[in-house]
Amino acid sequence: MKIVVTGGAGFIGSNFVHYVYKERPDWQITVLDALTYAGNRANLEGLDQSRFTFVHGNITDAELVDKLVSENDAVIHYAAESHNDNSLQNPRPFLDTNIIGTYTILEAVRKHSKRLHHISTDEVYGDLELDDPNKFTEDTPYNPSSPYSATKAGSDLLVRAWVRSFGVKATISNCSNNYGPYQHVEKFIPRQITEILEGRRPKLYGTGENIRDWIHTEDHSSAVLAILEKGKSGETYLIGANGEKDNKSVIELILSSLNQDTSAYDHVNDRPGHDMRYAIDSTKIRAELGWLPQYTDFEAGLKATIDWYNQNEAWWKPQKQVTENKYKIQGQ
Predict the structure, then answer these.
(1) I need a labelling partner for 323 at 20 to 30 A (CA). Which of 51, 76, 81, 87 fits?
(2) pLDDT digits (tens, 9 = 90+) for 229-271
């Protein structure tokens, strides 16, 4: 199998590359990544060049995408602008990458009759009330609430349209919030960890009641591989590990794991339009593809993630000051 992984130098993309490299030793992997601030070539260190190729380029480059798709068997499409705060400040890059980039890939896989798996997010469904017993399913109507989630919803709908209109062989997965190694320090969990490691009090939006459904990135990777190999074309699969936690509890767990007072954090103004709760019902992928998460103990997975950031300061330190300067300008 020869695969192209778009966005493979980013957080969940690079974790998928490492996972496939380990689990499928006869596969050839090509990563296409634009190396924006969220992509990091260091995320792919240690891979043998006989099985791995890195291409620096943009998914909106039709000629480059066409060439890579023609030379490979499948595309796993992780590339996306993905940070909600950034989408509220400047939505345009989200339209370029998430909509135009996905269109460019769809046209290439259509032309060359190649397999596509499209990575999406549970945020396309909007949010749930805190006391709602329901969870998102594959049949939940789309109700995005930010420029980020709206463009991801748009990209999902493009994939569905190309499957129906042109017979493209594609699947979609919508996953809950990932955590684990190689995540940019702008994101919630690594931002709090690195703030504490640098001797500052972490910050919590609003009251911290917002609930996210956390999944370790290696579990996400194993699910995507299962869909790629066993998923039915045209189908959507929701990926989750029953990891619902409110943000206040997560920040207090991080403080406790780093031997800090669990009240040693500050509240800041809430994000505009901040979704209250995400929750994934992953019955379909478990029943139809036999997938199960391995990191079912969130506290243990979080501790392992904290240890990784503690041991890899040289990786995250260059990102940190730039990120915090941006948050400072935004008053966060």
Answers:
(1) 76
(2) 999 999 999 999 999 999 999 999 999 999 999 999 999 988 8
